Amino acid sequence: MNSQWCFLILWLALIVGMMIALATIPKHELHLALNANTHTLFGDYFFMYFTKVAEYAPYLFVVILLFYRYDWAITAALGQLGATLTTQIIKHFVNAPRPKTFFEDNYPDLIPQLHWVDGVNMHAWLSFPSGHTTAFFSMFFLLSLLLTDRYKDSNHRWLLPLIQIACFLFALTGGYSRIYLSQHFSLDVLAGCIVGVLLTTIFYCTTWQWNKSWSNKSLIHRQ
Question: For the chain, what is the mean pLDDT?
Fold first, then answer.
């Protein structure tokens, strides 16, 4: 974890920045600034498909890791399972309105300013926190941890900061896609990025201490 300084600094900066924005800018104004004023034709197509990465890539990631190390695959599976359960429990307990419902009920005159992307099914409730964002940050933070562990003692360790920055930017892009598509508010995304990283940290630190004969084996290397 000490080697993740680059990812974690960016993550903490994101949290602080979003908390300041949420504390100083009204909820609806912040959403309009990040949603209505940022749309392009390329962005519509890109974010519509990129956001779907969180729906299948984490599970494909687990399968791929089975061919490298069992403990890595278990960590990824536990991280995604924990993220899913945590977000779903909170979602159903809070049952917060999505941007579509919130604006229809409170600011119907501002709805024309929102940009809806054709082909995206707009949800109405269960907004807080963002499950997609949780999955993005869980997966890409774990990827950053595993690649750092893989290359920290090699001649390629100079790549580690670049790897961590890339992983963070992929996770951030996934989180922002939820705002861009007007499926979530900034607060939902903030909560998702916190839950994703914290749960992954807990499971990684737990499995990292394993010293089982099978934990560093894989479907390829069983001996």
Answer: 91
